[in-house]
Amino acid sequence: MLAIHMTEKLFWIDPYQKEFSASIREQFPVEDGHAVVLDQTCFYATSGGQPYDTGVLNSHKVKDVRFQDDRLLHVLDEPLSASEVQGRIEWERRFDHMQQHTGQHILSAAFYQLFEAETSSFHLGEDYCSIELNRPNLSRQDTQHAENEANRVIFGANPIKTFFVDPERAKEYPLRKQSDLQESLRIVKIGEFDLSPCSGTHVYNSGEVGMVFILGTEKLSQTLKVSFLCGNRIAKQYHSDLEILKQLSKSLTTSSALLPESLTKLQDQLKETRKELNRLKEEQWKEEAIHLYSNAENWNGMKRIIRVWKRPYAELRFLAQRIMEQPGSVGAFASTMDERAVFFKNPKNNFDLRGPFQKFLQTHSVRGGGPPHLMEAGGFRAGSDFETGFHALWE
């Protein structure tokens, strides 16, 4: 992180401070609004995986807080007319970030101490948090062990302190991860459990994290992504999931404990229903194919059927396959819904199907192919004169 000297960071002095007064150092337009630089602020700027704080400056909404060169910018929609400001951060968002970030430190330390798994990145999102570990092959049992260890530390109500050290003295401390910053390092100390450099906001006692819960893991090419929740987010997730369970239980008229069994039965019934539905559809299509063949026009000693439909191509292909089983059959079907066409004939029929098929490809500048008795093409555009041109291919 760059050395920011112009603005005093009150969130480092007291992360629980919600309101403050400040003087405006400068203002200027930026691409997404208007930037204000203050002599001091409670607003945390995006860095280290933690998002910025929201809130107001003189009743003007702060929509972004970020570092630019050697300045900490508060981005508003319009400039401020006063030289002094009263600021207030959105406390619920700040405390949520404090819970998540502190929980991340404890969880990362648990993975490191148990498995020497180092955290390479941290993301604090709106819905969940995640870290990436350099041990992609950790098992579910391993992650559960780390979660249990993290919660042991949280429930132990360990004091959390922050302090600064000079870079040359940093190696004197048993830091979980070293920093390459050349400026004074801010260290976060969680009881006797973890010591690591960080510029984020944290709670004063590990018990305030509430608990940590691992949502799941995803094995990436070189890392393991671990998604998790801390504190109040767990309660929100629990209530959301519980409401879903209640609704499912009510819909299936069963208890939550029997939901897996009921859903398995429902899935089996659905598979059987789909199979029966497909069987009935195929029976219906077979009858339709017989009807089409029976009413086909006589053409050069063959029975020709040409149709353009606004219906799924899979149905038309099935019809073509059934009709081509009949002697002397020849024809073509096109689906304007899926913009695909099939040309077909009885395999014993001597008619060269490639003639009209090649005309179709050239007319619509598309590609296609298949065996001599069943050729397919797709990707054409079915305009208003498509059906007329489809019939004209056979002239």
**Main sheet specs:** 7 strands, antiparallel
CATH level-two architecture of the largest domain? 2-Layer Sandwich
Helix content: 25-40%
Mean pLDDT over all positions: 93
Write down the CATH topology of the largest domain. Threonyl-tRNA Synthetase, Chain A, domain 2
CATH-defined superfamily of the largest domain: Threonyl-trna Synthetase, Chain A, domain 2
What overall geometry do the principal axes of the alpha carbons give?
elongated
Gyration radius from CA atoms, angstroms: 34 Å
Number of strands: 22
Order of helices and strands: EHEEEEEEEEHEEHEEEEEHHEEHEEHEEH
Q: Care to describe what's here?
A:
With 395 residues, this protein is α+β, with helices and mostly antiparallel strands. 33% of the residues lie in helices and 30% in strands. The chain folds into three domains: 8-89, Elongation Factor Tu (Ef-tu), domain 3 (Beta Barrel), CATH 2.40.30.130; 94-239, Threonyl-trna Synthetase, Chain A, domain 2 (Threonyl-tRNA Synthetase, Chain A, domain 2), CATH 3.30.980.10; 284-392, Diaminopimelate Epimerase, Chain A, domain 1. It is built from eight helices and 22 strands. The chain has a seven-stranded antiparallel β-sheet with strand order 6-5-9-2-3-8-7, with no helix packed on it. The chain has a six-stranded mixed β-sheet with strand order 17-18-19-20-22-21, with helices on both faces. The chain has a four-stranded antiparallel β-sheet with strand order 10-11-16-15. Helix 5 (259-294) packs across helix 6. The radius of gyration is 34 Å and the shape is elongated. It starts with 7 loop residues before the first strand and ends with a helix. The model has no long low-confidence stretch (mean pLDDT 93).
